[in-house]
Amino acid sequence: MATITPTLTIAANASGTTTPGPISTPISISATTPLTVDIVEAATMTFAGASNHALLFDGAALGGDTETAGTVGSFVYMKNAGAANNVFIGVQADDDTAADIGAANQADDFSATTRLFTLKPGEFAFFPYDYAMDITVDASGAATLEYFRFDRG
Question: Is the distance from CB of 68 to CB of 81 less than 8 angstroms?
Answer without folding.
Answer: no
